[in-house]
Design a protein that fits this description.
eight-stranded antiparallel β-sheet; Tick-borne Encephalitis virus Glycoprotein, domain 1; 419 residues; 3 domains; 4 helices; six-stranded antiparallel β-sheet
Length: 419
């Protein structure tokens, strides 16, 4: 029986080491698989056989194949949607067909034809509000201008022109120009994001005082004058008064609001009192010029590009220069990540031993941060795997020799003839 037992022991060891070489080969094969975690074999001896008071071993068994969690090296890529986790956590990806959520460290994502952020298997990356989707053509609506700030230098050496400002609300551009020393155009936006030009005409009336008028195209205001080339006054006349050193004296100036605008294409619009500012305007003996302009309106914008920060916030950039948060990547962690159940494609499912998923936002609650334009590489150490391969090969060879020896001994025992 002991010879037969040695045959079984050696044969079992050959199977175990054959499976172990398969694990090592799988590690080596996935050397370049992003997010792959190295598998590790664990061995245990079998329950020994008792011969009287003597216990003889019955060989070895493959107790477990684990994937110990270890941070892989980070490699930069040119793709914004390539994501890596620096620290703890897993990306959550969902199978839209089955509703199953998987967990992975592989962050190779891209936008599909519906604007969803998916991996190469079509699983949808999950955010704090479910599927991360940008839609087919995300846009942002326009915003009406409500604040307009202009800063000028008005030439102190100017003298009042012979002609005055037109006496009617509507007049030709040349009539407005002939009554002014200087003019400037500011573009504002209505509630639908349509741009409109406001023209400011300045006329010097005394050494320290300038009158101004604000006009817009009559055709943009009056639906009965679609072809008019006139400019219509859209604000009460105002004045700017300067001190002897050329600084604007706001206490003596009259700065009026621009109210009651009713654009043909974009509805009503007001720039309320206090929202039209000439702060910083000066009167120096230099040519009149616009020094600075700012306003808070903008037109509608189409999606242009996006960025993803360390907290997983996806920010879209639009053609009108605005930005908008489009979603936040969610991460999950587990009490025992080493006991997650591998499903292939670098995907994992939770087990009883791993515990349930604890979800949250990156860089909070012990979860790692997101690195955009990066991928986490495989944790396979090629040198270590070669050492393991050689060790397993030798163990296989020795056990095969033990099996051969036991087989010869068994044959000799069978051929023994009693005398």
């Amino acid at each position: 029986m002991s010879i037969i037992g040695s045959l079984f022991t050696s044969n079992g060891a050959l199977n175990v080491f054959g499976d172990s070489i398969n694990v090592t080969g799988d590690n080596i094969a996935n050397l370049n698989t992003a997010g792959f975690k190295t598998s590790r074999t664990q061995f245990a001896d079998l329950l020994p056989t008792t011969l009287g008071e003597i216990e003889t071993g019955d060989g070895v068994r493959l107790e477990e194949v684990t994937k110990p969690f270890q941070q892989g090296s980070i490699e930069s890529t040119p793709n914004v949607t390539d994501l890596a986790i620096e620290g703890n956590g897993f990306f959550i990806v969902n199978n839209a067909t089955t509703g199953t959520s998987y967990y992975t460290r592989a962050g190779q994502f891209h936008l599909d034809n519906t604007g969803r952020l998916v991996n190469d298997s079509g699983l949808v990356l999950q955010g704090t509000s479910g599927d991360i989707t940008l839609g087919n053509a995300p846009t942002v609506s326009g915003q009406a201008t409500s604040i307009l700030a202009l800063q000028f230098n008005l030439d102190a050496s100017s003298t009042a022109p012979a002609a005055g400002f037109p006496s009617t609300a509507d007049a030709s551009p040349s009539a407005w120009a002939s009554g002014s020393n200087f003019s400037s155009v500011a573009t504002i936006y209505d509630a639908q994001g349509n741009p409109h030009d406001l023209s400011f005409f300045f006329r010097k009336t005394s050494p320290s005082t300038w009158e101004y008028r604000v006009v817009a195209k009559s055709s943009e205001i009056d639906p009965l004058a679609p072809n008019s080339s006139d400019l219509r006054q859209v604000a009460t006349p105002g004045s700017l008064v300067f001190s002897t050193d050329g600084q604007l004296d706001t206490s003596l100036s009259t700065i009026t609001d621009i109210s009651g605008l009713n654009w043909v294409s974009g509805g009503s619009q007001d720039i309320p009192p206090g929202s039209l500012s000439f702060a910083g305007t000066v009167q120096y003996a230099q040519p009149s010029t616009l020094l600075a302009e700012s306003q808070d309106g903008y037109g509608a914008g189409a999606f242009d590009s996006m960025s993803i920060d360390g907290q997983g916030v996806i920010t879209g950039r639009f053609s009108n220069g605005t930005t908008k948060a489009l979603g936040t990547v969610a991460l999950a962690n587990f009490a025992n990540v080493d006991n997650l159940d591998p499903q292939g494609d670098t995907l994992f499912l939770p087990t009883i031993e791993s515990g349930g998923a604890q979800t949250g936002t990156p860089n909070h609650g012990g979860l790692g941060s997101i690195l955009s334009g990066s991928l986490e590489l495989s944790t396979v150490d090629l040198a270590q795997q070669f050492v393991s391969l050689i060790s397993l090969q030798r163990a296989f060879q020795v056990n095969s020799r033990a099996l051969t020896t036991a087989d010869q001994m068994y044959a000799d025992a069978v051929n023994i003839k009693p005398y």
